[in-house]
Amino acid sequence: MPELPEVETTKRGLAPLIINQTVVQVVLHRANLRWEMPKHLITTLANQKVNAVNRRGKYLLIEFDVGTLIVHLGMSGSIKVLDKEEPCLKHDHFELVFDDGKSMRLNDPRRFGAVLFSKDGSHKLLDGLGVEPLEGLFDDTYLYVRSRKKQQNIKAFIMDSKVVVGVGNIYACESLHQASIAPERSAGSVSKKRYQVLSQCIKNILTQAIDAGGTTLQDFSQVDGTPGYFSQTLSVYGRENRPCGTCDGKISRITQNQRSTFYCKQCQT
């Protein structure tokens, strides 16, 4: 699933291509993705100029004078900007055609993504989100304070979007490994000092992933069609039974909260 680094990569690639461009046509190639796509977008966004492209958690926010287009990439989505004459692919479900002859297309084979709209920029999917891990509120005490008396495992805790946004499964595994913390530990049992280390590791891992263009395992690609290269530097994710790069142990895989967790039993405690 595209997480914060993939969505941030998409935002950065998209912004210079569509900001200040005017929509001349909105095309809904199907009625719904995860939810029904608002049909009024065809008229609401007609002749509207893109003012900004932002991100909140895993949501892309495309800003217009009339409101905000909210786009979620789901489990398999990606966005590309092409010449409008390029034929659409099978899973191109939503399209914005601009006055410069370019077309922004959301491709989502599994259709778990979303295209939504808000007149004032607020939405129930955004309102309950936690802090951004690469911004100031996510300091070296934030996780420690929020974790007190929490019995859930620490991996589930840092993946909770109501606590902190964008730390998906891959990045949680990598951050916990870099911080030498076992994913099965209860969140409330981890010391303040170790949370300070983990907070910095989360920032480091997410920043490295953004710099690498995200992680491509199956479907994700950047706006220009290239894959994300962070997968080439993964330390634990998808490396079951392979040597740990930190110690002489091996990477193990367990299931937590219906997701695969990869870690080293020897150096993560």
Describe the structure.
Helices cover 24% and strands 22% of the residues. α1 packs across α7 and α6 packs across α7. The protein has two domains: 124 residues, N-terminal domain of MutM-like DNA repair proteins; 123 residues, Helicase, Ruva Protein, domain 3. The strands form three sheets. The chain has a four-stranded antiparallel beta sheet with strand order 1-6-7-5. A four-stranded antiparallel beta sheet has the order 2-3-4-8, covered by helices on one side. The chain is an alpha+beta fold and 269 residues long. About 2% of the residues have low confidence. The longest helix has 20 residues. It has seven helices and ten strands. The chain is elongated, with a radius of gyration of 20 Å. A hairpin with a 2-residue loop joins β3 and β4.
Query: What is the number of independent domains?
Result: 2
Task: Report on the biggest sheet.
Answer: 4 strands, antiparallel
Return the CATH class of the largest domain: Alpha Beta
- Global outline: elongated
Q: State the helicity in percent bands.
A: 10-25%
Known CATH architecture of the largest domain: Alpha-Beta Barrel
At the fourth level of CATH, the homologous superfamily of the largest domain is: MutM-like, N-terminal
Average pLDDT, all residues? 91
User: How do the strands line up in the largest sheet?
Assistant: 1-6-7-5
**How much beta, percentage-wise?**
15-25%
Number of DSSP strand runs: 10
Residue stretches low in confidence (pLDDT < 50, at least 5 long) are 216-220
Total count of helical runs of at least 4 residues: 7
Cα separation of the termini = 28 Å
SSE run: HEHEEEEEEEHHHHHEE
Structural class: alpha+beta
- Rg result: 20 Å
CATH level 3 topology of the largest domain: N-terminal domain of MutM-like DNA repair proteins
